[in-house]
Amino acid sequence: MLELIVFAVLAAVVLYQLYATLGRRVGRQPEDTPAPVAAPAANRPADSTETAIPVNATGLAALRARQPDFDPGRFLSGARYAYEMILKAFAAGDRETLKPLLAADVMANFEGAMAAREAEGRTESVELLAQPRMDLDSAEVQGDTARAVVRILAEVRTRSTSAAGEAVDDRRTADLWTFERDLKSRDPNWTLVRVSVAEA
Fold it and tell me: Which residues belong to any copy of the Tim44-like domain (predicted)?
C-alpha cells in the first residue's frame, strides 16, 4: 500500500506564487517537443531505477529499523503523485483539494496567493512536460522523528491569462523537499516541512 504524503510546507516567506517555491531554472530550457506526462505512479509499481541511493545510508537503515515496511520506491511514488496534485490544485484555485493537504498556516499563504490572483482577474493552468524525477537524497531518524529528503527535478509549463493576454512560461526546476513523520504515530502520512532550491 502506497504511503500517502500530506503536505505541510513551513514557508520562510509568503507564497505569492507557488512556482516561486518550485526552484530556480536549471540547465537549458526545453525547446523541442516534450515527452508526454506518464500516468501518476500512485497505482503502479515504483520504478526502481528512479530510486537513488540515499547520501546517508546509515539513516535509511535506522529508519527501516523503526519502520520495517518503509519502501523508498513506494515513498517516492507517493511523493510524485502528491507533487503533481498540489501543483495543479494551486493553479486551478482548487481549495477543496488543497485544504486537507496543507497545514493551516500554509493553506493561509496559498489562499492569499490565490485570492490575489483572482482579484487581478488572472487565471492559471499548469502542466508537467515530463514525469518529474524523484530521488531519495537522504534519510535519518532523530529521536522519534523520521526525516527523508527528496530531490525533485521537473519541467513545468505555466499559462497565465489576464486582460493583457496570455503568457506561457516553461521552466526546469530543481528542489529539495524534506518530509518528516512521527514514528510513534499510527498515522502513516508524512509531512512536508521544508522546500529549498537544489543544485541541478
Answer: 56-197
